[in-house]
Amino acid sequence: MLPGVTASGVRPRPAPTTVSAATLRRLERAAGEVAGACLAAMVTRQPWFARLPADQRAGVQLVTQTGVANFVAWLGQGNHTAGTATGTTRLTAEAFRIAPRGLARQLTLCQTVELVRIATDVLEQRMPPLAADGSEFQALSEAVLRFGREVAFAAATAYAGAAEDRGAWDARLEALVVDGVVRGDGGDELVSRASALGWNPSTAVRVLVGAPPRDNPPERLGELRRSAVRMGRSVLVGAQGSRLIVLLSEQPGGGADTDPIGRIAEDFGPGPIVVGPVASDLTTAYASARDALAGLRAVAGWPQAPRPVDAEDLLPERAMSGDPAAHRRLVEAVVTPLTEAGGELLRTLAAYLEGGAALEACARALFVHPNTVRYRLRRVSELTGRSPMDPRDSLVLRTALVVGRLQSAGGSDEPPESR
């Protein structure tokens, strides 16, 4: 039979020897000297520690002194023999609660673990020799190891809490930036907040809007962020109720990604996704967000719209829903160039579209040869980028004609400041 095992099971281990009151008094008197030895060892074994600012070294010294004092107090409570970690957890956590708030941000977790290891080594060297006999020596040695382990766990817990706090603060800051872009806040405050999140405010940006993911939103949004990082893009995400707003940076020269927006769109929820135009920087991204949100409100008017769809491709639906920016864009893109090229192009386009897109009928109505109509329609395509023969383009052109007539008649609902 194996040593330590009986027929009924595992043989219980003997209870460790408690530390006498005389030994505890010697430990208490030596606590300050041991804490100083810990600091000296940190300076010797970790050169970066000596280069820390004085306030940070003082913070580490405070934590070390508290930790050594708590170790002696823990021994006095007898928790090293109790088999439970309640007292240990409380005392080790207290050592990190009294640390300066900025210490976890100034020292990495790896650096803190190295310092804990050094302090444990010093305790293991200095504390057991103060024991009264061999049994106390063994008890102190085991207690140092157990307390060092608890200190390491307490450090990890403190850093995890600090990371959660930073994550929550970053999430609130990110939401404020996205909300500021939507509301049109283009001041220094917006730039400062975005810079704190690692965003370059001078980079070009596009705004995507759609529905948030339904299944496991945190994981899907995390994958969205990871996809952007893999493509070398920066991204800011804001979930506002039933809509998800994403600010996606543009790479100079277009980058190597053939369809970055399509990859980002995979992590949206079901339904349409509208992409605003490229804005030159974060302070002008409001225009991209405005067009994207206007497109999201109007996209229901085009059931066959692709996913994602550019806000520019939704100009007819946006105009019909009363979007002043769409009215202005239609006039600038269609009516103005055709008017400047001569009234015949505008008149021919109107006759062709309103006559059922029949070439011969249009030629008869204008008393011109059909080839003349063909030539003029080609000129319309060259000037506007829209072909009157294409069903979707013809809707855009006809909507632009109607909007232009309404504005000419003084019936525009466009506010003066947006003109």
Can you offer a commentary on this structure?
With 419 residues, this protein is an alpha+beta fold. It folds into three domains: 16-161, no CATH class; 190-317, Alpha-Beta Plaits, CATH 3.30.70; 324-418, Arc Repressor Mutant, subunit A (Orthogonal Bundle), CATH 1.10.10.2840. Helix content is 61%, strand content 6%. It has 17 helices and seven strands. Helix 11 links the parallel strand 6 (274-275) and strand 7. It is rod-shaped. The model is unreliable at 1-16, 81-89 and 413-419 (pLDDT under 50).
Give the N-to-C terminal Cα separation: 94 Å
Tally of domains: 3
Q: Total helix count?
A: 17
Helicity, as a percent range? 55-70%
Outline type: rod-shaped
Subunit arrangement of the protein: single chain
Radius of gyration: 36 Å
What is the count of β-strands? 7
**Structural class based on helices, strands and sheet pairing:** alpha+beta
Arithmetic mean of pLDDT: 82
The profile of the biggest β sheet is: 5 strands, mixed
Strand content: 5-15%
The helix-strand sequence is EEHHHHHHHHEHEEHEHEHHHHHH
For the biggest β-sheet, the strand order reads 4-5-3-6-7
Unreliable stretches covering 5 or more consecutive residues: 1-16, 81-89, 413-419
Protein name: PucR family transcriptional regulator
Domain CdaR GGDEF-like: 184-298
Domain PucR C-terminal helix-turn-helix: 345-402
Family: Belongs to the CdaR family.
